[in-house]
């Protein structure tokens, strides 16, 4: 978060003090040693010195990791030294840090009104990706009991709600609406859910208002698989509060240069952890700084990746679809919103727009992205020649 060094909070001062040790550990990883060649860890103790280090872009990690499995040479230890090992769309391979709340989520849940002794329905996925565990460990660190429900299986979820009477929900806002609508339609009692912490998908004002009308106080968090909780909503306060476990910078997209407070730029995070150091890690997400250690929240992508229903879709995946269907021309994956849910439509140039081809491309889209989407075959040359393969047309704010 853009503080000047003279204004650094006590928690940030402690993080800055840990930077030399974390950099020393990072230099023991071969790829980091090359990336940070020539730096003096002992000299990096403030934001100005940190800003002189090179940025490492998340978008590069799938290719870097393929060159040196599993972590691309950016982790000092071995895979066997971590509690859990995950993969995120890309794919990006992620180790879990040690500790009771390794992703730093308990403060976000507390800010959203969750308290010890409550039951929490966790609908983030537990299979291979870390989302479920990120929120699970946070809730248990707070003293809550967790139902590891995962996504989908709506009927069974309604059974769980009626049996365990969870007060809280964690998951995407879209799926909370699905559960509430399904419960109302089937006459099921889901009234125990009175609070929620949502993430992983757009949470527009219209859906926020709907949850309020249904008696649910829903806050939002900004989290990623590799970092964990980055910022979270404190009800009644502006923007999102940046978490205590990381140093957040906002830089001009495509550079590592910090921008002034209020200017939109790309989020770069540093996590000074010796086992899993992240040094100036550019996430590709856009935001702007607010006073008091806050950010405006997610404001779009600095690159062309888009988060759809809690999962990232990347240009590399669109390229893979094109590779599997060489007869297609240009492709553009358009992401919109309909009925308070994310919607994907792949527009593809095809000389012969046959139904069987559209069906085959749709199946490839699902296989590659793990998400369902429509396919719209269009005439050759009808898509813009602007290099854009993912168009996120969802409203911001």
From TrEMBL:
It comes from the Bacteria. SUPFAM superfamilies: Acetyl-CoA synthetase-like. Pfam families: AMP-binding. Residues 139-270 form the AMP-dependent synthetase/ligase domain. PANTHER family: BLR5969 PROTEIN. This is AMP-dependent synthetase. It comes from Methylobacterium platani.
